[in-house]
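Hi all, posting the design record for the shared folder.

TITLE: backbone redesign
STEP: 1 of 1
STRUCTURE INPUT:
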């Protein structure tokens, strides 16, 4: 990892991680930080807001901004996610465009690339799922099709960590001289209650898989340690049964997994509530923090 020379000025800046859905942006952020700040799942658009993780080292602080995947919106929520991703590109010091080594370079990748500066760093992710020949071919396609004249390219696997340290060194080297934006030791810039609600949603996405990924939202409505009450929102009465599970099996599994992130002795109360068509209601999307 990069270390600053004795007497070197402190370097800092904001680094946006952008791309279309399911290319591994949140997994990459967690890998760069070597800790969990963003939830992950196989479902597209798992990330619904800007999540900032703070990467610190000797003489530097990089604020990593995880963003929702850019996609064709079908609801007010989708439009909000795209706007959130677009705003994260503005006024940053380094942009990382993540593309999938195992999928064609498509219109979505080119659409995102067209909004980025020429010196964007292109991260070709999922090298653990591609052969060396496939990786070389994808790097060539990215160079030819993304239109980023001065781009730099980094093949890696965010899942296994291979190549991630080299990317971190490169990002740190590009940071300008600047102040420390967060107190030393800060890991993420989201309230604990919001992070817990996201952990609950992550477990629901893993257990419910493709049945309800876009219909689920979570929010903590009571935070009086050791008691925590978290509402799980669905859009239809018929969806409650899927979230609860037979005999409460799904809620029990979700609660057990989420409690691992709470202090010992905490009581996590999970309640399922119907908020009809919440994805199409800008007022509720705002209150949920998306």
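Okay, here is what came back for every position:
SEQUENCE:
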């Amino acid at each position: 990892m990069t270390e600053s020379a004795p007497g070197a000025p402190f370097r800092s800046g904001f680094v946006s991680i952008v791309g279309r859905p399911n290319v591994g942006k949140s997994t990459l952020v967690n890998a760069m930080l070597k800790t969990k700040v963003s939830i992950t799942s196989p479902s597209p658009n798992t990330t619904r807001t800007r999540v900032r993780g703070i990467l610190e080292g000797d003489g530097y602080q990089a604020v990593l901004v995880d963003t929702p995947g850019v996609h064709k919106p079908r609801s007010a929520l989708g439009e909000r996610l795209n706007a959130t991703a677009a705003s994260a590109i503005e006024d940053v010091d380094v942009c990382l465009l993540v593309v999938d080594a195992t999928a064609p370079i498509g219109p979505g990748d080119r659409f995102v690339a067209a909004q980025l500066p020429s010196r964007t760093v292109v991260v070709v992710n999922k090298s653990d799922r591609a052969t060396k020949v496939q990786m070389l071919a994808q790097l060539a396609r990215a160079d030819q099709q993304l239109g980023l004249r001065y781009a730099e390219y980094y093949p890696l696997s965010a899942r296994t960590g291979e190549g991630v340290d080299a990317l971190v060194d490169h990002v740190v080297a590009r940071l300008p001289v600047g102040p420390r934006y967060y107190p030393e030791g800060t890991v993420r810039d989201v309230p604990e209650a919001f992070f817990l609600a996201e952990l609950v949603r992550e477990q629901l996405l893993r257990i419910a898989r493709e049945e309800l990924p876009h219909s689920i939202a979570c929010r903590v409505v009571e935070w009086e340690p050791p008691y925590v009450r978290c509402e799980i929102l669905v859009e239809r009465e018929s969806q409650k049964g899927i979230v609860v599970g037979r005999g409460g099996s799904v809620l029990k599994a979700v609660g057990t997994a989420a409690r691992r992130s709470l202090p010992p002795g905490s009581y996590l109360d999970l309640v399922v509530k119907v908020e009809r068509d919440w994805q199409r209601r800008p007022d509720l999307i705002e209150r949920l923090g998306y």
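COMMENT: The chain is about 30% helix and 20% strand.
Let me know if anyone wants the other runs.
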